[in-house]
Amino acid sequence: MNAFVAILRRDLRLALRQGADSVMVVAFFIVTTTLFPFGVGPEANILARIASGVIWVAALLAAMLSLERVFQTDYEDGTLELLTLSPVPLELLVLGKVCAHWLTTGLPLIIAAPVMAVMLNMDQDGFGTLMIAMLIGTPALSLIGAIGAALILGARRGGVLVSLLVLPLYIPVLIFGAGAVEAALLGISAQAQLQIMGAILLLSLAAAPFATAHAIRQAVE
Amino acid sequence: MHRFAKPSVFLKLTGAMMPWMVALTVILTVVGLYLALIGSPVDYQQGNTVRIMYIHVPAAWMGLFCYVGMALCGAMSLIWKHPLADICARATAPVGATFTALTLITGSLWGEPMWGTWWVWDARLTSMLILLFLYLGYIALVNAFDDPERGSKAGSALALVGVVNVPIVKFSVDWWNTLHQPASVARMDGPSIDPSMLAPLLIMAFAFTGYYFIILVLRVRLELNQRRIRALQLSGLFDERAAANGDDDALAYDQGHNAGAGK
Fold it and tell me: Which pLDDT does position B27 carry in this prediction?
C-alpha cells in the first residue's frame, strides 16, 4: 500500500510541477466541444439535443490523448524497468499510475463538463446525471486506456496506434454514459445505465491492471 | 496438441492434408452455391434477396470464429510460447477482417431493399463494426514493432482483451431491441428456419470454414518458409542445394530459434 501511495504521489507531483498537462487536457476538451456549434450551427434546440453525446465524445478523445504520458516517459528513461524489478506487484503500481492519470485528467474533465453543458444549452435536469455518469465512466476510461498505453510502448507511430486500439474499447462507456444523460433529460430514471457503467468500471478495475502489467513486462523485457 | 505445434510436423501433416482439404472445400462450395442460388426456394417476403443470406450469415459466423481462434492462438502463445500459435494468430487476422467486412457489405446490400437503408446504428451492426475495428487494431499493432516477436505478444494481449466484444455481437439481438432479426439457427429449441434453406446455409458455412483453414495453412506455411529462407541467408548456407533439400539446416534453426521460447 505504501508503494501505491508513493507512486501516486510521485506521478501527481510530476503532473503538477509540469503543470501544463492537466490544463492541456481540459483545453482540448473545451476546444473540441466548441467546434460543434460552428459545425452544426448555433441553433439552441439542436445543440441541446446533441450536448450529452458531444460532451462524452470530447471527454473520450481528451482522455485518450493524455494516455501517452502515463507510461511513455517512464519507459524512455528506464523508470518502468526498475518498477518491474521491484518486489511490489507491478499490478499495484499500475493501479497507482492509473489513479494519478484519472486525478489529473478525469477529475478536471468532470469539473469542466457542466460548464460546457451550459454553453451547449443542455437542460439543467441532466447536469447531475452527467457528472455522476462521468464520475463512474472516466475511471473506466483511464483503466482501459492504460492497457492501450502499455501495449504501444516501443511501437512506431504509437500515438496514432493507441486511438485505433483504445477507441473501440471505449464505445460501451460512451453508449451508456450518453444514454444515462439522455434518460435523465427525458425525465426517466438513469439508474439502469449507471449500474451498467458501474459494472464496466468494476470489470475493468479487475482485469485492466493485470493486462497492463503484462504488457509492460513484455515491453521492458 | 503440442506435438503438432512443431513446425516440421506441421509442414509434413498439412502438406499431406492439403489436397483433401481443397477438394472437400471446392465440392462444398459448388454444392452450396448451387443450392443457395438455384436449388433453394424463394422467400415469400424477401424474394430472391434472401439468397444474400447464404453468404452473409456464414461470413458473420466466420468473422466471430476467426476472432475467437485468433484470441485462442494468442492465449496459447502467451501461455506455452508456441511460435506456431503466434504465426496462426497473425495469419488469421486479415482473413477474419475480410469475413467481417464481407458481412457488413452483404448486410448493407441486403438492408437497402429490405429495410430501405444501407446502414442503421443497430446493436448488432455496430458491434460487428467494432469487431472490424478490433481486427484492424490488431493488424496495425502487430506490424508496429521492429521486433516481430514483440508485435505478436502485444497483439495477443489485445486480442484477448477484445474477446469481450464477441458475446456482445452474439447476444446483441437478444439484449437490445434491434432491427436485425434474432438468431434462427443456433437456438435452444432447434433451428426455426426451414430445412430447404438450412441445408444450403450449413453447407456454405462448412465451405467457408474449409476456405479459412486452407488460407490459414497456406499463410502459415508461407511464413515458416520465409523464416527458413531468412535463416539460411543468415547462416550463409543459401545456395541452390540448400533451397531444394535444406530441410535439416532450417529445422535445426527453427528448433534452436525457438529453444529459448520453451518446448
Answer: 94
pTM of the model: 0.81
* pLDDT-flagged residues of chain B (< 70): 1-5, 177, 186-190, 237-263
Give tens-digit pLDDT for B246-255.
555 554 544 5
Contact A214 B157 (CB under 8 A): yes
Chain A residues inside the 8 Å CB shell of B260? none
Q: At what angle do helices A44-65 and A20-40 cross, to 10 degrees?
A: 150
Q: How close B114 gets to chain A, by Cα (Å)?
A: 27
Task: Supply the ipTM of this predicted assembly.
Answer: 0.77
**Cβ <8 Å between A152 and B154:** yes
> What is the domain extent for residue B54?
7-181+192-222
Cβ partners under 8 Å of residue A79, min gap 6? A73
B260 found inside a domain: no
B144 with A157: Cβ contact below 8 A: yes
Query: What percentage of chain B has pLDDT greater than the value 70?
Result: 85
The model's pLDDT over B75-123, given as tens digits with 9 standing for 90+, comes to 998 888 888 888 999 999 999 999 999 999 999 998 888 888 888 888 8
CB A220 within 8 A of CB A80: yes
Nearest chain A Cα distance for residue B155, angstroms: 8
B234 to chain A, any CB pair closer than 8 A? The answer is no
- Give which of A162, A164, A173 to mutate to test B binding, by max B Cβ within 10 Å: A164
Task: Identify whether B98 is part of a domain.
Answer: yes
Chain B residues within an 8 Å CB radius of A221: 150
Count of structural domains within chain A = 1
Measured distance CA(B128)–CA(B252) in Å, rounded: 43
Domain limits at A134?
Answer: 2-220
What is the structure's pLDDT at B263? 37
- Interchain CB distance below 8 Å, B144 and A167: no
Residue A148: CA count within 13 A, CB half-sphere: 31
Cβ-in-10-Å burial (0-12, 13-18, 19+) of B124 comes to buried
Count of domains forming chain B: 1
Q: How far is B200 from chain A (nearest CA, A)?
A: 34
